[in-house]
Amino acid sequence: MQALEFADVKLGNTETAMEHYLEFLNFKPGAEDVRLTVAYNLGQAEAYAEAIALLQEGIAEDSTSVALWKYLGDMALKQATESGESGESATAQTSGVVDEAAARVAVDAYEHLLVLQGDSIEVGTLKNTIAAYMALDEIDAAIDFSDRALKQVPDSASLWSVRADALARAQRFSDAIEAMNQVIALDPAYPNAQLRRGMFKLRAGDESGAVSDF
């Protein structure tokens, strides 16, 4: 049954694949590993809406599953920021959100993960949450979440970097500079750190400081 579903996904027959999957669930309704595998296959085929529905059904069965919540957030974020023409995902800083409802699903999923995992949560998940808020243009919420995230993982240069971007979007350039100072202190070789700090200094009116960074 799983092999048949996989073949249908590869052929683009997502509706038929879903039928096979639902038939499988009649035998094993709580098979989380299979649900995740099928969701992955649907995601590879860019059938994000179908993957989201499957994952939400799984969470209805078990709302404590870290794996289901995480993958739901990832799939929803892809659905939310997918570029309509190219099929590629847009960054939160550029094209923004395409599907607001999916972005809300992503934010909710990641917020649940923070509650479930606490300080064991992955940095990538925290960054995705900030990206989802920024895609929704909810910059204050992105900054607030970055505060909470850094309490869990204070030594992540990449998390400080994402916070700096959110602060810059809010035109809080002095705070963005301080965030980049943290990035450089934690990782002096962080890619483009001085360049970005210089841009923030320039926006803050510190031309000599910007030249020094450049």
Please give the structural blueprint.
Layout: H1 2-10, H2 14-27, H3 32-44, H4 48-61, H5 66-81, H6 100-117, H7 123-135, H8 139-152, H9 157-169, H10 173-186, H11 193-204, H12 207-213
Structural description of this entry:
The model is unreliable at 83-95 (pLDDT under 50). The radius of gyration is 20 Å and the shape is elongated. The protein is mostly helical. Helices cover 73% and strands 0% of the residues. The chain contains 12 helices and no strands. The longest helix has 18 residues, at 100-117. It starts with a helix and ends with a helix.
Keywords:
0% strand; mainly alpha; 214 residues; single chain
Quick structural overview:
The chain contains twelve helices and no strands. It is an all-alpha fold.
What is the string of helix and strand elements? HHHHHHHHHHHH
Structural class: mainly alpha
Count of helices?
Answer: 12
Question: What would you report as the Rg, rounded to the nearest angstrom?
Answer: 20 Å
For the largest beta-sheet, the strand count, sense and barrel status come to: none
- Unreliable segments of 5+ consecutive residues: 83-95
Mean pLDDT: 87
Secondary structure tally: strands: 0
The end-to-end distance, rounded to whole angstroms, is: 58 Å
Quaternary: single chain
